[in-house]
Give the backbone structure.
Amino acid sequence: MKTAFSIDARRIIVDYSSVYCETVEKLLKSKPFEYILQRYLQKLAQRESPIYDYFSCCYNSDDKLSMYKDLIAVLRLLTTYRINEIVELNTRYAQLLQDGKLVYEFVEGLYDFWRSYERYIIMTAPKTKLRTRDSIHHAQFIKANETLRQLILRTYRTICENLIEQPFRVYRQLPAGAHIGLLTQTIEWDCPVEYQAIQSIPFIRLALLEPPVIFYPRMNKRSGLFNEVLENPLSDLNIQPEEWFCYPAKIGKTLAFAYFHQSFMSQGASLANLFELAQYEDIVGKKPDLILMFGAPQLQYTNDLAIFHHDRQNQVLVGYEVNTTKIDYFGYMKKMLLTLHNVTMLERNRLPLHGAMVSIRLKSKASANVIIIGDSGAGKSETLEAFRILAQEYISDMTIIFDDMGSIEFANNEFKAFGTEIGAFLRLDDLQPGYAFEQLDRSIFMSPNLTNARVILPVTKYSKIIQGTSIDYFLYANNYEKVNEKKPAIEVFDSPDQALEVFNTGKRIAKGTTSEKGLVESYFANPFGAPQRKTQHETLAINYINKMFKLNIIVGQIRTQLGREGYEQKGPQEAARALFANISKNLKLESGQ
C-alpha cells in the first residue's frame, strides 16, 4: 500500500508499518483516528443529530474547523483529566464540555462507529528465507495486533471514566482492534513475462482473525457459469499493484495465487478459513498452477463478469472476475478457484467431483469411505452435518476428506480420492440450531441476517485431504424425492448406465444458494469445469464409473430430502441412519454372518 491507510464507506485498511501506535497520544494523533472522527461528525451532521447541534452552537457557522480541532484536543485531554480539571486548565473548552452526558454519548457513538467498519491491519515483512526471521516477524505481528486492540479499549474506557467520573462496573472485552490482520511479504516467484503487472503484489504470509468475524457483502448468492475464453485476460493488464493482495492457496495438490483488489478485502481475507495458506518455500522461485484476479478492470472483448483462460504456453489456468458489486459474494471467489482446480484435474486425467467425502468408523466396527456427489443445496454438506449430530450414537471416528470439491485418480488398479479445502462454506439455515454459535471462536459469518446466510469454518487438516483415500461408496445426493418403500434412502445402482444417467442429469431442487429456482439440472452436478470441458469430462467419467463397478465400489444415490419443506434437518439425518445401516450390513456380509 502506498498510503498509510485506506478508508471507504464500509472498510478501513491500515498499514501498521507506517502508522504504528503504542501509546494513547500516538493513537489520537494518528491520521486514521482523525479521519474516523471527521466521518462520524459528517454522519451526525447529515442526521441533524442533537449532539452535532450542541457542538455547533459553540462555534460560528463558518468555523467548523475550530470545532473539529477542539474535539480532538478535548479527547486527548480526557485520557488524562476529568471534565472539571480540563475546564480549569483551559476555559476555552468550558462551553464544549458543559453537558458531560451528551459528550459521553458522543464518545460512545464514535466508538461504535469505528467498530461498524470492516477493520484490517496490514504489516509488511522484509524479504527473508530464514525460518527464524519469519518466526520473529510473526511474533512481532501478533504482538502489534494485540497491542492495538488493548490500546483502543484502554483509550475508550479512560475517556468514558473521566467523563462519568467513576469506573465502569461491567467491562466487555469487545473486539475493538482489527477484524483481520495480515502480514504480507514481497516474494520473487517464477513470473512469466506476460504476468509482469502482478509480479510485485505482496503475498499474505500470516492471517490473524479476531472472532467472531462478521461481514456483510453486497450480494448473497451466485449465478451463472464461468465461461472459458481464448484470450489471456492478464495480457496488457493495467492495475495499481499497491491496491492488491495475494492469498497463496494450496488447493489440493495445486498451488493457486488468489489476487484480490482491496475493495474485496472481506472475500480475499476469508480464504484463510477455507484453503491452506502456502508457505514461503511453496512460493519462492515457483510458478503457480492457478492464478485468480478478483476485482480486476472490465475487459474490452467481453461483457462477462467472470471468465477463465487456459494458458497452455505457461501451463497456468487463469481466472478473471471484474470489479463490480455483482461479484461481492464469497461464492464467486471460491467457485472460480475450484473451477480452475477442476480443469487442471481433467488435464491430469483426474475426475473432479462436486461433493463431499468422509471416512467413518461406526461403533458396530464397520467402516467406510463415502463420497456424496451433489450440486449446491443438494445435501452433501448437510449430510456430513447429520453425521456429526448422530456421532455420539453411531460413530466412533470420523474424518472429513473434502466438504465441497475433490478429485479421484485411478492408478495401480485402485481409486484414490483427494480433497481441495481445509474449510467449509455452509448455509446457516441448514445447520443444527446452535451449532454455528458453538463455532463462534473460529468462524467467519457472511450476511447472517439474510437468506442463504453463510459461515466459513475450518473442518479438516491439509495432510488429510492430500494423502489419498480409498473409496467404498460413491453416491449421488438426491434432495427432491420422498423416501418410501420403492425409493429408499440408500439406493444401489445395478449398472454403470443407470448410474451415469443419474449423475449426468444432476437433478436437484434449488435451495436459493444460486439464482436457480425449483427442480433444476446440472451436468454431473458440477458447473465448475465439467460442462466447460464436457467431452473431456464425459470420457473420463464413463471410464471411471465402469471401473468402480468392476472393483465392487458401491455406486448409488442417497435421498437427503433436503429440498422438501420441513426436511431440512430431518431428511439428511434419516439418510445418515440409512447409510450407517447399509455400511453395517455390508460388514456382516463380508464376514459371512
